[in-house]
Amino acid sequence: MVARRQVRTMIEYILVVLTALLATTCILQRKRYTDLRDEYHHYLDNHECESPTVQRVENHYEDIIDRMQERHAAKLAIQAEEYEEKLEELRQEGKQSLEVNVKHEFDAGDTNE
């Protein structure tokens, strides 16, 4: 019984750590995309060109960066939601297991008297 609780606690701990890593990854990816965009704008500011072709290319790359951010954020949100659901399932299983163990111990105490 104690081993089960320890395993469940360890699994909960692992899920919490994975969720934290997922959030950290999301933050780092967002920073990476923002840095890329800033670098791109800095380059354009230093190499100004009013050509329509350059404007189309600029808009195209900005759209690509925006889509990459949206897709990555959506994937991370789905993963975080899955981790949260699994964590909640484990908490419920642990709570039910604890209730059953307490009931068995209580029932066993009645038969000893």
Task: Please provide a written account of the structure.
By secondary structure, the protein is mostly helical. The protein has one domain. The protein is built from two helices and no strands. Helix 1 runs antiparallel to helix 2. It is rod-shaped and about 85 Å long.
Describe the structure using short key phrases.
113 residues; mainly alpha
State the separation between the terminal residues, measured CA to CA.
23 Å
Rg (C-alpha, Å): 26 Å
Helix content: over 70%
Please write the string of helix (H) and strand (E) elements.
Answer: HH
Count of beta strands:
0
Oligomer: single chain
How many DSSP helices? 2
Summarize the structure.
Keywords: Coiled coil. The protein has two helices and no strands.
